[in-house]
Amino acid sequence: MRRLYLQVYLMVVAILVLFTILVALGWNAFGPTRDEGRQFMSGVAAVLSRVLPPADAPRTEVRAALEQLARDLDVELTLRGADGGVIASAGPELPAPDPDELSSGHMHRRHRPMFAMQLPDGRSLVAHREQERFGWLFAIAALAAAIALGAYPVTRRITRRLERLRAQVEALGSGTLSARVEVRGADEIADLAKSFNRAAERIEMLVAAQRGTLASASHELRSPLARIRVAIELLGGEEGADLRARVARDIAELDDLIGELLLASRLEALEPGQALDRREPIDLLGLAAEEASASAASVDGEPVTLVGDRTLLRRLVRNLLENARRHGGGSAVELSVAKLAPGRARLSVSDRGPGVPESERERIFAPFYRPAGASETRDGSFGLGLALVRQIARHHGGEACCRAREGGGTVFEVDLGGVP
User: Fold this and answer.
1) What count of Cα atoms within 13 Å lies in the side-chain half-sphere of residue 66?
2) Of 56, 153, 176, 309, which one has the fewest beta carbons inside 10 Å?
């Protein structure tokens, strides 16, 4: 992933590099031309010819004048005659220039830049001054480095605030409705953080209201159901026995559904990573055997102890067994418990029913999901059972999945954490 602060920072560095290149090209394009340079060097040579003694002057006089000139200009100088011989030198003797170097005025020997010029009387003068090479390039590079170093913390500060905002957005999306962003500054990013906080607060209020309404409605429904149950019990006569039995089954189904709604609402209210209300060591194999005995399911596996909520895990096993009984086509239901890697366990419930199409193996965990072509009359088959199984598994650090069983049928596997 390309970080925004790197993109901004690299853009600044690229601008500095482009600036340096343009300066170099501009210097070459608009700096002194070769002819202008020659004209300037000719003028300097004429001035020096008047400062230095004539060619026929004594060498001691010439050397004294050359040394004085070298001190004034802070350079090394070597004066040669028309024949190339050294007349005098101030400092180390410098190399003799060739005709091209005299014409251009520039020499470069032994990685040392020098200047060469021919005096009007035929003598040649070579000068060298110790200095930083490419000084102007170093100056521009230093400027670019300073700007680049200064730009990094600025761009990083801007994008770090965006990263904090992104982290809170992800937290809100994962279910942490209390996620908020610390508002800093008074710019556009601060306005964005304020907008996010207002939106998150509104979402939290709406979800809390929805959960409260669901819980209240579930509780309110149980009161009339209880009254209906009492009224049915008061009905007498053999002729009302079948009616009482059907109504009692419907009431029991509604009561179970309300219980599942309340449990689902309570689990949804728990934020990701939030601890369950009750946690205790649980013998998973023993708990599974207790539930299987009421469903005539076979149990095998190895004893596994994990830390969790006993009531929730019992509901998980019960829902899986009930689902296998209803959709297993009358086949035998098998339950097994196995210990996986350190800290994890797996509970599997298998049947030999018609199976679940691959396209629906994930969708069946959605609340009240009804497969295509399913009958409108239901006996509790399409409710919150498997949705609760997945919720309970996730609150125990695991996951639930459905897969095809080898030889036909279906296997529901639940991986759980919390094994000591």
Assistant:
1) 26
2) 56
